[in-house]
Amino acid sequence: MRQKHSSIIWKLFLLAILSIGLYQCKKPEDQSSPVMFGTPQPLEIPKGFPKTNIPADNPQTVEGVELGRHLFYDKKLSADLSISCASCHEQFRAFSDVGQMSTGVNGKIGRRHAMVLFNLAFQKEFFWDGRAKSLEEQSLHPIKDPVEMDNTLTVVISRLEADSDYPSMFKAAFGDTKINEERIGKAIAQFERTMISANSEFDRVKRISGNIDAPYIEDPNTPGSKNKGFEFFNDLNGGDCLHCHSIQADGAYMGGGFGTDLQFINNGLKMDYTGDLGRMEATDSLSDWGKFKVPSVRNVEWSFPYMHDGSIPNLDSLIGFYNFGGFDNGNTSSFMKFAPSHMGNRNFTKQEILDLKEFLKTLTDYEFLENPKFSDPFEK
Ligand code: HEC
Ligand code: HEC
Q1: What is the mean pLDDT of residues 78-106?
Q2: Atom 3 of ligand 2, nearest CA residue
Q3: Is residue 190 within 8 Å of residue 134, measured between CB atoms?
Q4: Which of 145, 211, 358, 373 has its CA 20 to 30 A from that of 79?
Q5: Distance from the CA of 317 to the center of ligand 1, in angstroms?
Q6: Is the distance from the beta carbon of residue 156 to the nearest atom of ligand 1 less than 6 Å?
Q7: Ligand nearest 187 Cα, by number?
Q8: Which residues contact 170 (CB under 8 A, 6 or more apart)?
Q9: Best substitution site from 90, 127, 241 to test ligand 2's pocket, by max atoms within 8 Å of Cβ?
Q10: Model confidence over 301-358: pLDDT tens digits?
């Protein structure tokens, strides 16, 4: 017995020597690849969710996430110390804003509604027009944006350097106390990637079971039916929401793959997009006029007001808008069915509206909205 053990130990020992040898044989440029600090904390990917989009030089670590969470909630990031990221992205609203348009420092009003933040680890393009290509890059925009935090990174960095806790937190996350733009962006991105929403009634009944047809248990006290609402959401002659919100791409559904979620679409919200051209501002292409990122409908019960301009205040007016069918503005997606028979009124019945609303509520993920892991670390 003892003999056998010691031979295993020998083999391990040889293996260790061999791998050190191999490591040293590596070309010099390989050694400049990112050195990992901190405790690895790989994301747990819910069943059926798509592949994550994590840059190789920013692996998830316990320390990086914790640092990112502090930065997300820290008002030091704004010029006059008045707002943090969380001022516009509030957890109980699925990290969107209670206000129609976001209010930055000195009460400056932006022209867009703050977006919901969850399942970002699976996405590739950020902002309503998709102009940011990574979360690392995106995180630095609000700090500098004059209608948001209106600050400079030089000021932010010197404030963080003077803080009693941050230098050691940067050291734990990145190996030394140096604080720079890149590390701020990386830490915030790591925190944002942990914000995964995957435990709504929808997930429990349909996604996790792997059976999209598994029925909900109806609540006899509600006027609408979840199951009928689900059918209506998917019915091409009904709500026809699935054409754009199959939710497959952000993992709420597990099948299909026919949806256009997270792509850029003009849903006929307006006749005239003067003042905010949407995707066209990022691409300069006329065909992108009035197109906006199709947001997830997860947590929709709590993410009001809706749309890029926050112009739709609640669920009833949201369904009212889709019942109206959208404006035929010349670039409206054909998926909106703005053909004359639909234009102006798609004639949803009262019962269909109640059913749709009941289904949409099954997408609420209270575990996410109330998860202490995503809450303000300064409020203890
Ligand atoms: C003053 C309000 C405000 C503040 C402060 C703010 N945001 Fe935002 N956020 C917005 C608005 C508005 C948008 C949409 C902007 C656009 O499309 O141009 C947005 C979009 C985003 C998105 C894109 C989401 C997606 O699905 O594409 C991310 C990520 C984000 N913010 C993270 C942050 C982080 C991190 C901070 C802090 C460093 C922050 N925000 C601070 C208002 C704010
Ligand atoms: C033609 C594609 C299309 C169809 C069909 C469609 N949507 Fe949308 N939806 C969009 C786009 C694009 C936006 C964002 C538009 C904007 O902000 O200007 C959006 C926004 C939303 C939002 C706002 C989310 C937020 O965070 O602000 C909700 C909720 C929503 N849709 C629900 C529905 C429902 C329910 C249906 C079916 C009755 C539906 N959609 C049908 C494309 C579509």
Answers
A1: 93
A2: 244
A3: no
A4: 373
A5: 24
A6: no
A7: 1
A8: 67, 160, 176, 177, 178, 179, 183, 187
A9: 241
A10: 999 999 999 999 999 999 999 998 889 899 999 888 655 555 557 889 999 999 999 9
